[in-house]
Structures are given as structure tokens and as C-alpha cells.
Amino acid sequence: ALGQLYERYGALVFRRCRALLSSEADANDALQETFMRVQRYPPSGVEVMGPWLSSVATRVCFDLLGQRRRSV
Fold first, then answer.
1. How far apart are CA 42 and CA 2, in angstroms?
2. Residue 44: helix, strand or coil by DSSP?
3. What is the distance between the alpha carbons of residues 61 and 18, in angstroms, rounded to a whole number?
4. Closest CA to 58 of 48, 50, 70
5. What is the pTM of this model?
6. What is the chain's percent helix, strand, coil content, to nearest 5?
7. pLDDT for 49-58, tens place per residue?
8. CA-to-CA distance for 56 and 35, rounded, in angstroms?
9. Exposed e or buried b per residue across 40-68, where buried means at least 16 C-beta atoms within 10 angstroms of its C-beta
10. pLDDT band, very low/low/confident/very high, at 1 (cuts 50, 70, 90)
11. Which long-range contacts (CB under 8 A, 24 or more apart) does 49-53 make?
């Protein structure tokens, strides 16, 4: 199921991460972390996956940006 989600929505999640992080390498890291979180905390009751995954990816990106600020 996770592989199917990745195949269908991976590009959408990557574009969202790339837009927020402005770095392809960071966007790839965020893409992986997004799907790791989905694996750890599978969606229940989510009817429309695209917007939900986009919101998970947004949270991952904000978390990464916050980590950057704290480490500087």
C-alpha cells in the first residue's frame, strides 16, 4: 500500500517539499521522511490522500526548517 501511495503521490509530495525548502537534496530528504511518517502513522478515515499527504509533507518541511534554525 505504501508503494502505491509513493507511486501515485511521490511527485506531488516532492514538488511541495521543493517549493518550501528550495533545495533538491532537502526536498528528497523531506520526501523520504514524509513517507516514513505515513508508514509509522497510517492514515485512518482519510478520504482524499493528495491534500492529506501535502499537509504531512508541509509539516515535515517546517520541522526541517526549524531544525536548521536551531542548529545555526
1. 9
2. coil
3. 9
4. 50
5. 0.88
6. 85, 0, 15
7. 999 999 999 9
8. 9
9. eeeeeeeeeeeeebbebbbebbeebeeee
10. confident
11. 49/5, 49/8, 49/9, 50/9, 50/12, 53/5, 53/9, 53/12, 53/13
